[in-house]
Amino acid sequence: MANPTASSISVNEVVRQYFPAIPTSKGHDSDPTHLSHQVYPEVSYTDNEKIEISQWITTATRLATPDEDEAKHAERLGSLNIHLSTRTTLLGSKPSIADVTLYKSLAPAVQKWSPDERMGEQGYHHIVRFIDFVQNAPLFGLSVKEEDKVSIDPSNVIFYHKPLDAKYEKEKKKKEKAAQQGATKGEAPNGTAATGSSAPATATDKPKTEKAEDALSTVKSDLASSLPTSKKEKKPKAPQQPKAAPKETPLSPCLIDLRVGHILKAVPHPNADSLYVSTIACGDPPGTDNTSEYEGQVVRTVCSGLNGLVPLEEMQNRKIVAVCNLKPVTMRGVKSAAMVLAASPRPVPGVEDDGHKGPVELVEPPKDAPAGERIWFEGWEGEPEGVLNPKKKVWEMCQVGFTTTTDKEVGFEWGAVEQLKGVEGVEGKKKLGLLVAKGSGEKCVVNSLTGATVR
Predict the structure, then answer these.
(1) Nearest by Cα to 278 from 309, 257, 299
(2) Residue 159: is it exposed, middle or buried by C-beta count within 10 angstroms (0-12/13-18/19+)?
(3) Which H or E run includes 85?
(4) 305 vs 272: CA distance, rounded Å
(5) Helix or strand or coil: residue 340?
(6) How far apart are CA 52 and CA 54, in angstroms?
């Protein structure tokens, strides 16, 4: 399947092409949310939807890149097709400039797709339906000439996916469950005893039944008369032993879940000038709490206070070190499920640290380390906590010892952590443990900062 021929997509140009009556403002040319409000003024968007709009525009641009790897391109199309299988628009039912941008990106390619690529068993049925809907539906209101539209014949379906009848499936499961319960109780499907014969009982069987009942009654009577009438004295209950207090886990930086993260994309936070919102793959398995799926990968949404400190282009498609077991927090309407590790100069004693001064450099993991690989400090290896208890202040206490060396390597100085001084077993450790990848043992570094704080 050939990739589209467009090299890049300007959202501002999309508005000019499909909505010529709408003036574009130079100050907001690159703001997708502002442009969406211009095109669809009656539609309101939540904070998460604003982020989604920016993310889908990034995806549309990548799908329009002619030199993208063929396998990666097919993976993006497959993920998009699955996403659209349960949605009318990218956001569900709301129109946005992201839908129109994606239409511009994919329309030239869809026009060239073969019938099998469109509607075959492995075809992108839902993408084709989406393209047809965007170019024709009054909901979007595109200004497209008939001869410029993608030619789509809805009746030309090569393979029909059998729809599930929910009511039929429910009744089927109900009958199967009833049959299993009947088999367990020794009953035949019609409710009779499963004795191997379906013949009804005859009148001659009745006396035998009555005799059996009389005999059983006699046995019960004899047994009752032979039992003592006095009640047995209850034995005093043994006192319950108090439960042992849970063993306290010793303080260690290994309790912090540091991993290689891959930033797939980053956009400015819609409600905070100092924040970025990044989509980061951290190696989580599907279904992990506070994750979602993006381009076929399990990802976390992460807010970081790096806007104005690290250029946005340097936040795209790069490896970082992520702190993955801090309790998720909502930052100006967007839930953040991790933290990006970065180095900055140590605060000057007596000078208030406003937390947003430069320079700032992202911690770089080994180049070949995959997303999700554990990162730890030499001499402090171990398993991290599932989620750090904020009341125990593990992150706050250990982070004080995070630093960079004269060789620009990231390390942990336990001597800087007051709570570790005098603790048994700590005195024998190296004063500085370098931050390394679990698999290769290669070091994590920064670009230029030495003697910095890392947080």
Answers:
(1) 299
(2) exposed
(3) none
(4) 9
(5) strand
(6) 5
CB atoms within 10 A of CB 132: 17
pLDDT tens digits, residue range 335-394?
999 999 999 999 877 666 655 577 999 999 999 999 999 999 999 999 999 999 999 999
Pairing relation of β-strands 258-268 and 318-323? Answer: antiparallel
- Residue 445's identity, in one-letter code, is V
- Taking each continuous run of H as one helix and of E as one strand, the counts in the chain are 10, 15
Query: What is the rounded CA–CA span in Å between residue 205 and residue 212?
Result: 11
Q: What is the mean pLDDT of the chain?
A: 83
What's the distance, CA 112 to chain centroid? 34
DSSP state of 187: B
**CA nearest to 123, candidates 88, 159, 75, 97:** 159
Residues in CB range of 375: below 8 A, 6 or more apart: 258, 259, 260, 321, 365, 369, 435, 436, 437, 438, 444
- Which residue, chain included where needed, has tokens 């299988």? 85
Highest mean pLDDT among 6-15, 79-88, 145-154, 335-344: 335-344
Kindly report the number of other CB atoms within 10 A of residue 47's CB atom.
17
Ramachandran category for residue 275: left, alpha or beta (phi over 0 → left; psi -120 to 50 → alpha) = beta
pTM for this prediction: 0.63
DSSP annotation of 196 reads S
Q: Write down the H helix ranges in 85-165.
A: 97-112, 115-119, 125-136
